Amino acid sequence: MQPSENRDTKWKGSRDAWLDAAFELLLESGVDSVRILPLARRLNVSRTSFYWFFRDREALLYALIERWREKNTQGLVRQTDAYAEDIVEAVLNVFDCWLDSGLFDAQLEFAMRSWGLQSEEVSREIDTADEARIEALARMFERHGYESLEASVRARTIYLTQIGYISMNTRETLEVRMRRIPYYAEIFTGQAPQTRQLRRFHARHGYEPDADGREGKSLRG
After folding, report:
1. Domain end point (choices 25, 54, 83)
2. How far is residue 125 from each of residues 65, 68, 115, 153, 159, measured CA to CA in Å?
3. Is residue 7 part of a domain?
């Protein structure tokens, strides 16, 4: 890349940078704060550079919805389709979403649901997403031998529990969450997770329990 191209990119920012900044404002102050001039100031770029990437503010807001849809809805659906030897492992795959923001961004979910309280259009998007996510979870249970109604109820129980966590902005340490995971898995599936399944789950999230299994530490950072 030539120096002039570097300068041009810095001046305009990038589409992802504008979206990241818009998400930050959405989370901090709500959708009314997501406007072009405050975003440009936050990014330290020219206001006119916004129009390299978006037609108008409405296009930016739509792009935020698209990002949420791809990140959270598709992220969750992909986890329900991940390989699992049994239903407990399948549910632990879903639990990955609650611990890895690369799979499912809880802050983005909270921001979108707050936005939905002000916008019928966004509220409808959320309803559609909820339906798709619950259906994906129910199909997961059905693939592992649960009949349709039971699969639907278990799917709703998992999903509504987690959305409750997000909507209440619940905070837990990794240690507390990990101690609770086996009990949630058993409640949601009717089957207790095996030690080897928990070990794989812990390893995916950089967690090492103490010898008694009740306490633990993060291996990250």
Report:
1. 54
2. 8, 10, 11, 22, 17
3. yes
207, 71, 41, 212: which is closest to 79 by C-alpha?
Answer: 71
pTM of the predicted structure, to 2 decimals? 0.86
Alpha-carbon span 121 to 112, nearest angstrom:
11
Position 219: which residue type? L
Whether residues 71 and 176 share a domain: the answer is yes
C-alpha pair distances (Å), 197 with each of 68, 90, 119, 139, 193: 30, 10, 42, 21, 6
Measured CA distances, 137 to 151, 174, 176, 217 (Å): 8, 24, 25, 30
Domain of residue 124, residue span? 64-218
- At 138-196, the pLDDT tens digits run 999 999 999 999 999 999 999 999 999 999 999 999 999 999 999 999 999 999 999 99
Question: What CA–CA distance (Å, rounded) separates 20 from 71?
Answer: 13
Give residues with Cβ within 8 angstroms of 76, minimum separation 6: 94, 97, 103, 104, 133, 136
Structure confidence at residue 78 as a pLDDT band (50, 70, 90): very high
Residues 178 and 78 placed together within one structural domain of the fold: yes
**Rounded to an integer, what distance in angstroms lies between the CA atom of residue 164 and that of residue 86?**
26
Do 194 and 88 belong to one domain?
Answer: yes
Confidence of residue 13 (pLDDT cuts 50, 70, 90): confident
Say whether both 88 and 46 belong to one domain. Answer: no
